[in-house]
Design a protein that fits this description.
Blueprint lengths: L1 H24 L9 E3 L18 E5 L8 E7 L10 H13 L3 E6 L10 H15 L1 H4 L1 E11 L1 H11 L21 E5 L12 H8 L5 H6 L13 E6 L8 H13 L3 E6 L18 H11 L5
Parallel strand pairs: 3-4, 3-5, 5-6, 6-7, 7-8
Antiparallel strand pairs: 1-2, 2-4
Helix pairs in contact: 3-5
């Protein structure tokens, strides 16, 4: 009787252990609306513990997901001093969801409290997080794009021209992952930090009042494009006086010179900071043009 009871207890323990092992092996779940910090502890260079000191991504999932869902990381603008997280974040994420694309809106750290390279590091880390968890979250690791508006466009451009393959010796497995986006979408982006047509507010917030000229050149996208820069879609308005069209035009020409696949749309009218421009019939078609471009690149069906 005692031997039978002992065998039963041993069997139960083994079964519990197997169930526990199986549970631990299950993919990490994500939920719509979930906010995920980019680091489990304090972020590198953190100056405090407020929300603004904790870079994170907010999850927006399409209605249906397969085992390899295309993904975008969205960087709202705001002159590197605040984040336009509604019309350049949530609304844009919802649009991508309607195309069957998973979207993650990045809350990156801001100036003048934080300067470069903190912002770039936050965005690069976000790409690494998405790619390293692609299997767990049912994302396609080869279709991870970055979308940025205004100053967020500058940050997206910086990520797409200053990526790396990861550090193979890093203790943090996420840091071993490639940070290169597979495609880029830029809305009225800040590009140059050296030309007269830069956005002075973004430059001051990112680099301070007296930036090093060499650093400013390094963060000027028209100087950073190579043949390995990802395919890029850009839209802009000719009437934009906040971030003039010269930013988009010179960046497009740099992409063209390097042989990078690129598409540029400059609309005649419209102010800065329009987001999806759903209330502007003249500008609203830009998102339809984007969807066609994404289909042409086999990002979406």
């Amino acid at each position: 009787m005692r031997k039978a009871l002992r065998r039963t207890l041993i069997t139960a323990v083994v079964l519990v252990a197997c169930v526990s092992t199986t549970a631990r092996a299950q993919p990490l779940p994500i939920a719509d609306g979930q906010v995920i910090p980019l680091w489990s502890g304090a972020a590198p260079g953190a100056l405090g513990t407020d929300t603004t000191d904790i870079p994170a991504i907010t999850v927006y999932l399409p209605r249906a997901m397969n085992s390899a869902t295309p993904t975008v990381l969205i960087l709202p603008g705001g002159g590197y001093t605040h984040l336009a997280s509604n019309h350049e974040g949530r609304q844009v994420a919802n649009y991508f969801n309607s195309l069957g694309v998973a979207a993650f809106v990045l809350r990156y750290r801001l100036g003048p409290r934080y300067h470069h390279p903190i912002e770039l590091g936050d965005a690069q880390r976000a790409i690494r997080v998405l790619r390293s968890h692609a299997g767990d979250w049912r994302l396609d690791a080869t279709r991870i794009g970055i979308v940025g508006f205004s100053a967020g466009g500058h940050l997206a451009m910086s990520v797409s021209t200053q990526f790396d393959i990861g550090n193979a010796r890093a203790a943090d497995l996420i840091d071993r992952t490639n940070s290169r986006p597979d495609f880029v979408v830029l809305g009225y982006p800040v590009i140059s930090m050296t030309e007269l047509w830069t956005h002075g507010g973004s430059k001051r917030a990112l680099l301070g009042d007296s930036p090093d000229p060499t650093l400013a050149q390094t963060l000027s996208g028209e100087r950073r494009v190579t043949k390995d820069t990802p395919p890029t879609f850009i839209f802009q308005t000719n009437e934009d006086t906040v971030v003039p069209a010269e930013n988009s035009l010179h960046y497009f020409l740099a992409l063209r010179k390097a042989g990078v696949a690129a598409e540029l749309h400059v609309f005649e009218t419209g102010p800065h900071g329009v987001g999806l421009a759903l209330d502007n019939p003249a500008l609203a078609p830009w998102s339809t043009l984007l969807a066609s471009w994404l289909r042409g690149r086999s990002v979406i069906k």
